[in-house]
Specification:
With 126 residues, this protein is of the alpha+beta class. 31% of the residues lie in helices and 21% in strands. It is built from five helices and nine strands. The protein has a five-stranded mixed sheet. Strands 1-2 form a two-stranded antiparallel sheet. A hairpin with a 2-residue loop joins strand 4 and strand 5. The longest helix has 16 residues. It is globular and about 30 Å long. The two termini are 18 Å apart.
Amino acid sequence: SLLYTIKFECSMASQQESVTNGEESKAKVFTLEEVAKHATADDMWLVIHNKIYDVTSFVDEHPGGVEVLLETAGMESTYAFEDVGHSLDARDLLSQYYIAELHKDDHTQGFADGTQVTSSDGCVIL
């Protein structure tokens, strides 16, 4: 199926990107407890789809203002991010701020209605 093909191609691309100089690099992993230490305008991390983003340098540029970011700073922010209905451009911009994965024990599941988010390159964001 098309969805399987997209997931497979994105998975293969991710695997290829994770190999550096013949060695597999490992993503950093943090718990929600660690993320919670980064909840100010001067040091802000967000968790979106089990990925951690350091958006500190973007706070002043955010079209919705710093206040909306502070509402979920240092915590799981997926629902707030999706509820706003961010554009594909905003989703692509977010990738610049990726720093780590959320520890598997703190992972959240997908949306109850089965909604999936797709990036502009066709990868399903899980």
